[in-house]
Amino acid sequence: MEMTADDYDTRDILRPLVFRLHENAPAIVREVLLERGWTEFDKKEQDDADWNLYWRNSPFRMTDHHSIKPWQRLNHYPEAVRITRKDYLARHLKRMKGAYGSALYEFSPVAFIMPNDYVKFIAEYSKERQSVGRRPSYWICKPVDLSRGRGILIFQDIKDLVYDCTVIVQKYISNPLLISGYKLDLRLYVCVTSFCPLTIYIYKEGLVRFATEKFDLGSLDNVYAHLTNTSINKHGASYKKYKEGIGRGCKWTFSKFRSYLRMFGVDDVLLWQKINNIVILTLLAVTPLPVASNCFELFGFDILIDDKFKPWLLEVNYNPALCLDCSIDDTVKRKLLHDIVELLNYKQIDTFRQNRVAGTKAGRRWVPWSTTGKSASREGPGLPTCRKVAKCTSASSVQPALQAARGSTRKVANLTKKTARAHPRKTLTSQLRERMNMPKIPSQAKAEAKNKQLPGAEHSPRRSAQLSHWLPTPDFSNYELITRPYFLSDKDQRPIARRSLLLFFS
Predict the structure, then answer these.
(1) Which residues, 6+ apart, have CB-to-CB distance to 101 below 8 Å?
(2) Gap between the Cα atoms of 25 and 22, Å rounded
(3) What confidence score (pLDDT) does residue 349 get?
(4) How far apart (Å, rounded) are the C-alpha atoms in residues 111 and 55?
(5) What is the pLDDT of residues 59-115, one digit of tens each?
(6) Residue 152: what pLDDT?
(7) Cβ(350)–Cβ(384) below 8 Å
C-alpha cells in the first residue's frame, strides 16, 4: 500500500524541506534555499538521513549514491570528472573525432597531453615551422587539474614551454571576437539530470566575461589581456575603471550580448544553435556515466567565439563559480539556483523524509524514465513536468548546422514511444576486457552450464516509455537529436542509435 501525504497528520504538512551543505559550499546556495523556506540540516539534532538536498563542492563517494533515499538529492553525478578534467575531455573528444570524423567535432582546438604527447607535439610544431608562407601558430599550456586561470602559459616559441606537471597544450585561438578591443568568452550553465537517457537543461541566461586590458599578441605574458577569468581580472588595475564599450567591471549578461550582436546584424539565433550543438556533442562523448538516481550535475561550459563567429569549446568546469563578485553575478546566479531547485521536482511527501511504501525499507529511487504502459506526461520523481521548455532546438539554425555534420538532426512532429534503456550497453572494449579476464572453463563444464540455463534468460523485455508532447514556445520547436552511435547491438553487432534530450530553462 502506497503512503500519501493524506496518510500523515495534517499538522505535519507544513514541515519544511531540509538542505545539507558541506564546508566551503557557496554562500548563495544557503541564501537561496532559505529564501525558499528550507531549513538547514543540524547534525546534532537530526538523523543522518533527515535531509532532502546535499550540496558539496567535492565528489560524493559511491556509497553515498548507493545509500540514497527516495526523498534525497545529491548535486554531483558519479565520475563527472570524465568531462571536467582537461586531459580526460581531450581524450574523449579525440576518440569521437576518430569515430565520426573531425567535421562533427571541429569545435575543439588541436590538443596534446604532455608529457605523453610530447613527440607528437614536436612533430606538429616542426611541421608548421617548416611550412613556407605559413604563419607559426600560438599555443596555450594549461595544467589539467587546475582552474581559475592558474598556471596558464601562452607561447609561440617552444623554448618558452616550461611545465612541471601534467599539462594540456592546445592551439591558441589568436583571432577572438573583440568588443572595443577586449577579448571575451561565454560561461554557459548546463544542468544534466540524467546521463541515461541523456537529459540536458541549458540555462538561457549566462555570463559574458571580458579581459580588462585590450587584446595584444605582442604581449603574451599579460594575463589581463588574454585571460577572461574573473578571479584574475578583478585584481587588475583596470577592473573598476570605465572601459569604452564595456563599462566598469568585466561582465555582461547573455541578454545584453545578444542585443549587441543584433545591433550589428549578427544572427544570434544561429550562433546559439551552434553553441547548443557543442554542449550536446561534448556530453555525448562521455555518455553514459555509471547509473545513479536522485542526483544532478551543474556544469560550466566556457565557449570562445572567434572573429568569424565560430564558437569553440575551451573547457568544462566541474564546480562553476557561484560567488557574487558584482551585481550581474547576483542577477544571473541567484535565479539560476532557484530554477535548479525547481528542476529537482520536490513533492510534498518528500518533506516527511520517510519511506513511501509501508513495510518496505527505503532504498534507491526508481528511475522515472522507465515506465510501463503509462504516459510519462505526469510528473515523475526526479524530473519535473516541463511547461516552459522544449525538446532540442529550432529548425532554422540547428538543421543546417547538423545536416552538414552527417545529418544528425531529424525533425519530429510528434514524439512516439521510444525504448528507454535502464542500463547502457557494454562497449566492445569492455566486452573484450571481460573475456580476457575471464578464467578458462573446461568444455564439459561449459556444456553443463549451457544446459542449466533457463530459456528466455538471455534477454529481459525492455520497458517502453512514452514521452508527453510539449507545445512549442515562440522560440523553440520539438526536435529529436540522433547521433551516430558507438554502441553495438547484441543481435547483429551493428551500431544502434541512442537518444539525447535537450531542454531549456529560464
Answers:
(1) 406
(2) 6
(3) 83
(4) 33
(5) 999 989 999 999 999 999 999 988 999 999 999 999 999 999 889 999 999 999 999
(6) 93
(7) no
Q: Which residues of 110-138 are buried (b: 16+ CB within 10 A; e: fewer)?
A: ebbbbeebeeebeebbeeeeeeeeeeebe
Sequence-separated (6 or more) residues with CB below 8 Å from residue 458: none
Per-residue HEC secondary structure of 331-342 comes to: HHHHHHHHHHHH
Q: What's the pLDDT at 491?
A: 42
For residue 161, pLDDT over 60 is answered with yes
Which uninterrupted H or E stretch holds 216? Answer: none
Structural element, H or E, at residue 199: strand 198-203
How buried is 425 (Cβ within 10 angstroms: 0-12 exposed, 13-18 middle, 19+ buried)?
A: middle
Measured between its terminal Cα atoms, the distance across the chain in Å is: 38
Residues 6+ apart with CB under 8 A from 99: 484, 486
What are residue 143's DSSP bridge partners? 167
Does position 478 have pLDDT exceeding 50, yes or no? no
The CA distance from 412 to 499, in Å, is: 13
Average pLDDT over residues 324-341: 94
Percentage of the chain beyond pLDDT 90 is 51
The whole-number pLDDT of residue 143 equals 93
d(CA 295, CA 73): 5
List, as one string, the DSSP characters of 256-307.
HHHHHHHHTT--HHHHHHHHHHHHHHHHHTTPPPPP-SSB-EEEEEEEEEBT
Predicted confidence band at 414 (pLDDT cuts at 50, 70, 90)? very low
Cell of 177: 571576437
Peptide bond into 115 cis (omega under 30): yes
CA–CA separation, 409 and 404 (whole Å): 10
How many C-beta neighbours within 10 Å does residue 33 have? 23
What is the amino acid identity at position 260?
Y
pLDDT for 433? 57
CA angle 385, 388, 393 (to 5 degrees): 105
Half-sphere exposure of 306 (CA within 13 A, CB side): 13
Please tell me which residue, 350 or 226, carries the higher pLDDT value: 226
